Amino acid sequence: MKDKRILYVSSEVVPYLAENEVSLMSYDVPKMVNDQGGQIRIFMPRYGNINERRHQLHEVIRLSGMNLVVNDLDMPLIIKVASIPKERIQVYFIDNDEYFKRKATFADEDGVMYPDNDERAIFFAKGVVETVKKLNWVPDIIHVHGWMAAMLPIYMKHYYKNEALFSETKIVTSVYGQSFDGTLDVEMINKVKLDGIPEEAVADLEVPNYENVLKAAILHSDAVIIASNTLSSSLTKFIESSEKPFLPFVPKDAFAEAYTKFYNEVL
After folding, report:
1. What is the distance between the alpha carbons of residues 76 and 31, in angstroms, rounded to a whole number?
2. What letter would DSSP give residue 197?
3. What is the pTM of this model?
4. Is the CA virtual torsion 71, 72, 73, 79 positive or negative?
5. What is the pLDDT of residues 74-93, one digit of tens each?
6. What helix, strand, coil percent values describe the chain, rounded to 5?
């Protein structure tokens, strides 16, 4: 992967959040490419439970200051950055006080999902793309991890379809086991349509449960990785029948060679 540019967009990344399937792979895969001489950037939301002092986050003034429109409202975009110790890997954090200041990731202390998680996902997707545009950094591959990042493939293929910067960029989505029950806001599809995304392209979001959010992401990706051996049979069948190139689940001790080969096939 030497000199290849890969942008990792993830819901969660260690060491900033607790270890789980998504957060561990969102660290291990970029580290692997970095070790191979690839150029990488990682983007994640700046949740309020990330300790800014301990992880030495600081705001990047030249990248902050934009406003993004979500559900017809202007929301200020703040960009923060930190480095993963010893790895020389930069992580960019998409921040907004309204969406990300609360002291948890996806749910309150009673385990109830935040009602605006759909808008947070839209804001995150737009914030990543707008920041990468400002950096003028052209990724060969964008690799998406976790449902909070799942709007990115959709926005790339519609809202940002005329951006010359990304004309050659391929989108790979890793699909993990079920991360939430119930649905996101039932108005989600209408909020996405406000951005000019055709209803038929996101019909799955009529019922925005975990599987349907991931199905919408898969349909807008160039390739898919089955990243969990606990993936439901229905999502697995959907991926297999999607006619997208896909990588079956590979155990952690063997992922490096398989992912490298898959990236090269996608490119």
Report:
1. 31
2. -
3. 0.97
4. positive
5. 999 999 999 998 888 999 99
6. 40, 20, 40
